[in-house]
Each structure stands twice: as C-alpha cells, then as structure tokens.
Amino acid sequence: MIDANSELPDIKMYSGTSAADSELVFDFFNTRPIYRTRAATIEAATANTWPHLKGKGVAISHLVVNPCTVGVPHIHPFSDEIVYGISGSNVTSGIKKPGTPLFMISELRAGQLIIIPQGSLHFFINLNCEEKLEALQMYPDDEDIKTITFEAQINDIPNEILHASLNIDIDEAESIKDELPSDTETMRLSQYCLKRCGLKL
C-alpha cells in the first residue's frame, strides 16, 4: 500500500524501449498502404506486414474513406469482419448472408461496432457530404484478409450460367464481364452521392 503522503517516483525514471523500436508495436501511420485511391486509404497489420501476427489467427486494417465513397460488394470467406468506427457518421451498410434477403443498416457512426458474418456479401457507403469515415477492421480468423469482390465472383461464373441464372442473352453475359474493371476495385466514389452533395469527381 502506498502512503498518500509519500512521493511517487517520476515515470521518466523507468527505462524502456521506444514504441518506434518495439516489435510489439505496429504503426499504421508509418506503413505502406495496401490500397490508396482518391476514394480511400487502407493500411493493414497482417501476418505478411507484421511478423508478430504469424500464427495468431488475426489481422487488423485501418480504413480512411472520403465522403461519397462506396465499399464495393465483397465477401471474406474465412472470417467474420468486425468494424469499429473511429470517426464519421451517416454511413449505410448492406449485408446479405447466404440464403437470406439483403439487410440494410443506416446511420452508422463513430463509436459503434458492427459485425459482418463470415461469407456474407456486404458493402457500405459513406453518405456524409463532408466528413471522412475512419475505422478499424478486425478479422479474427484470417491472418491475410482474404477478400473476394463481386467483380471477381462474376468473372469466375461461366457465361452459360450467367445466361441461365440472370435470364439474359449469352452475348450480354460476356459484355457484363467486359465492362467490369480489370483491376479489382475495393472502393469507388458514388456519382449519385457526389451530385447530391454538390461535390466534383
């Protein structure tokens, strides 16, 4: 028990390793982003970017999203995604678990935590006209953040199946694939939202 009248030692007298030099500290702001566009920036602590996570079965990413940005539909096949909002408001998310209807959640904001179940098709949009969205995304069973985008899923489906399942001409199935971006897009600006907010592309 510490006597209330005794002088406590100065915390500066304890030596220690600087956070910048510790292998137990990962600096999101001092690492190369895995994704950077006009729409968003993502830095990630994975088994590849931070060896300390090898064998831990978890990965964490830091996301900064500009106003009117859409996180395109995608799934994480090996893990739930747990997202904690650091800043932002007026964010809408859509989640579709296999065999269930689309479930929409609106008005997400800073301080809230959302869980997206493993294998669910999901997306979000930052509908705020001025405020960026900043969040931490945690993947408790996936050290590398494996993601399958909607574009990748469509491109893997044979034209004959698209023709039959979407009730479209087989040539139209091919043109759908041709119109998809060749590089996988994770985030894109929403033309509708930019127009509504009076913002320019």
Describe this entry's structure for a reader.
By secondary structure, the chain is α+β, with helices and mostly antiparallel strands. It has two domains: 28-147 and 186-197, Jelly Rolls, CATH 2.60.120.10; 149-183, no CATH class. It has helices spanning 150-155, 159-166, 170-179, 191-197, and strands at residues 35-36, 40-45, 59-65, 69-75, 81-87, 91-96, 103-108, 113-116, 121-126, 133-139, 148-149, 187-189. The protein has a six-stranded antiparallel β-sheet, with no helix packed on it. Strands 4, 6, 7, 9, 11 and 12 form a six-stranded antiparallel β-sheet that branches. α2 crosses α3. The longest helix has 10 residues, at 170-179. The protein is elongated and about 85 Å long. The N and C termini lie far apart (63 Å). The model has no long low-confidence stretch (mean pLDDT 86).
Brief overview:
With 201 residues, the chain is of the alpha+beta class. It has four helices and twelve strands; from the N terminus they run E-E-E-E-E-E-E-E-E-E-E-H-H-H-E-H. It has two domains: 28-147 and 186-197, Jelly Rolls (Sandwich); 149-183, no CATH class.
